[in-house]
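Structure (tokenized):
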């Protein structure tokens, strides 16, 4: 029995971790981001056309979620419990990928390192939004794609291995759906696969094979990867073209790209911003890290000179020990600066691993070229295309690299231990493994403790029983506000509320995307995301879609959806604040909309 437990211990640990995360999924209801993802998918299920009738730049994530939301509605007949169901599914999918990461990485490194990387992957979720957000989907799909490529390289001589190239392409396509800018990841992964084959001595065929046969093998490899991408891309394009004419698409794209919160800038400015984010968070530590990286690169160049490295091997070994010790001290600073911020420890871990990769004489090129360039591409794209330019956006890319970073770090420590089992090597090995465990402990703590846009965990003791949030615990005060919104929608924002059939469209201001899931009226907004009554985009939308001018408008009390400071999320006491004037207000005044006070705000109804 003990032998069985010891053998299955990694799986037991992963399953226990999943159980903890399943319990955690029942706590904390977010009025903003989480319900927004499903509100977008919900409007697509009801027939709205992507890009044309939905203007949010991250909407393609909703296209991915659409069939799953449609299936949920088909089974349940509505939206009750939708958010909790997808949280549970998210934990199950994450656990399956974490297990795959453990199995695949175990062949590249030790059991401890592989398990650690899998657990770091499992417990990291961007800002603790533990569902299929475009952030989370990017990490899930890109890591899965990389693992499929790595599994192929490990087993390329076996008959079954080729299909993993197709799987890699399929999951790469899902990455692109999560954020279209990440189309660059296909080229990054394809190039990384090529480098892994060429530079890491992972030959596809024996040396005796002719150059033509080798080229054919490489072409087949990239064709299978591309085939996987087309399996997702072709149905998506057919769906889009069946709904949308080329003229409508051209007319809509400028509006999608002009979203106020996702306004882009030049490629160089964002590239510079990536480094400024690091400097803003870590200050002088980053300057010291850049110096350390430069010295490590010089040492690597010196070691490449055969005569020099042979003559001065002891000097190189000593310099490696000193540099690794300095790197460990820098990591201690990065760690302390990362406490309390979801995702920052993922950044610190990758920064810790890069100098060690340069110092390691037995460096794993295959892991490096598969994970690190893809992570850099994701970090850059999220800095360019997300709502802000802070480090927590960029950290999504670093999270992609974490499992490989663990292998790089432990690989260096173990190789030093094998080379010379002295006291210094033992201390270094113990320190490195302790640092990795601390990273995991901090990630686990933040994942459990931090609550996104609700309240502190001990205060979440009131259970939601109706609507999309059913089954989730929030505060008693937030539950009352939520129920007020549901009551208002049920009484005044449904087709049945207007039996003459004259009222068909519905707009909510400013931020309660779940309202669109609960109402059977058509969404009368360019997006279910944060739109105030003063937004100029509203009138642009109605000019292009006059049939979407709202018949029913619900303006929420400004304090509804308020949340407390918890971890790295700062409190917002008035998330639904509106300007007292705006084009939609003026339009409703001109057309004599009826104004009525309701428990959650003010209702305007077209006469």
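Design, position by position:
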């Amino acid at each position: 029995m003990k032998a069985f437990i010891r053998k299955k211990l990694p799986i037991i640990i992963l399953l226990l971790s999943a159980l903890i995360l399943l319990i955690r999924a029942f706590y904390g209801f977010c009025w903003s981001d989480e319900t927004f993802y499903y509100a977008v998918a919900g409007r697509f299920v009801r027939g709205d056309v992507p890009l044309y009738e939905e203007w949010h730049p991250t909407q393609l994530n909703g296209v991915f979620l659409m069939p799953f939301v449609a299936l949920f509605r088909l089974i349940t007949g509505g939206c009750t419990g939708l958010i909790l169901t997808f949280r549970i599914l998210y934990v199950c999918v994450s656990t399956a990928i974490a297990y795959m990461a453990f199995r695949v990485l175990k062949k590249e490194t030790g059991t401890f390192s592989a398990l650690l990387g899998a657990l770091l992957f499992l417990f990291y979720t961007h800002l603790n939004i533990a569902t299929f957000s475009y952030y989370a989907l990017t990490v899930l799909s890109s890591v899965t794609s990389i693992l499929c490529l790595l599994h192929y390289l490990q087993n390329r001589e076996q008959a079954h291995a080729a299909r993993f190239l197709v799987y890699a392409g399929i999951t790469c396509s899902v990455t692109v759906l999560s954020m279209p800018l990440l189309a660059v990841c296909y080229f990054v992964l394809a190039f990384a696969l090529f480098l892994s084959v060429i530079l890491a001595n992972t030959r596809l065929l024996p040396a005796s094979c002719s150059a033509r046969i080798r080229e054919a093998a490489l072409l087949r490899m990239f064709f299978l990867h591309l085939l996987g991408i087309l399996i997702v891309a072709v149905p998506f394009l057919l769906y889009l073209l069946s709904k949308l004419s080329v003229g409508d698409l051209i007319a809509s794209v400028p509006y999608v790209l002009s979203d106020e919160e996702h306004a882009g800038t030049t490629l160089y400015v964002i590239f510079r911003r990536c480094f400024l984010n690091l400097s803003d968070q870590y200050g002088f530590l980053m300057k010291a890290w850049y110096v350390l990286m430069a010295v490590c690169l010089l040492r690597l160049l010196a070691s490449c000179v055969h005569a020099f490295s042979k003559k001065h091997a002891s000097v190189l070994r000593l310099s490696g020990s000193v540099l690794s010790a300095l790197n460990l001290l820098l990591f201690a600073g990065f760690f302390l600066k990362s406490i309390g911020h979801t995702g920052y420890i993922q950044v610190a871990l990758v920064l810790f691993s890069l100098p060690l990769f340069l110092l390691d004489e037995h460096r794993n090129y295959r892991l490096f070229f598969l994970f690190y360039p893809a992570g850099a591409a994701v970090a850059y794209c999220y800095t360019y295309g997300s709502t802000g330019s802070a480090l927590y956006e960029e950290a999504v890319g670093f999270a992609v690299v974490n499992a490989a970073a663990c292998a790089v770090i432990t690989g260096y420590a173990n190789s030093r231990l094998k080379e010379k089992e002295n006291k210094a090597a033992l201390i270094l090995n113990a320190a490195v493994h302790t640092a990795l465990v601390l990273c995991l402990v901090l990630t686990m703590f933040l994942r459990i403790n931090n609550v996104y846009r609700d309240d502190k965990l001990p205060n979440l003791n009131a259970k939601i029983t109706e609507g999309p949030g059913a089954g989730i615990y929030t505060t008693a005060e937030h539950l009352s506000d939520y129920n007020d919104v549901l009551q208002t929608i049920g009484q005044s924002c449904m087709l049945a509320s207007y039996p003459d059939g004259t009222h068909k469209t519905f707009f909510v201001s400013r931020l309660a995307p779940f309202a669109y899931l609960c109402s059977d009226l058509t969404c009368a907004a360019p997006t279910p995301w944060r739109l105030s009554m003063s937004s100029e985009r509203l009138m642009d939308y109605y000019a292009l879609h006059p049939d979407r001018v709202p018949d029913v408008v619900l303006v929420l009390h400004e304090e509804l959806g308020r949340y407390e400071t918890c971890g790295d999320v700062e409190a917002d006491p008035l998330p639904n604040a509106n300007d007292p004037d705006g084009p939609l207000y003026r339009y409703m005044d001109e057309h004599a909309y009826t104004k009525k006070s309701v428990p959650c705000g003010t209702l305007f109804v077209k006469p």
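Reviewer-requested clarification: The longest helix spans residues 211-243. Confidence is low (pLDDT under 50) at residues 200-215.
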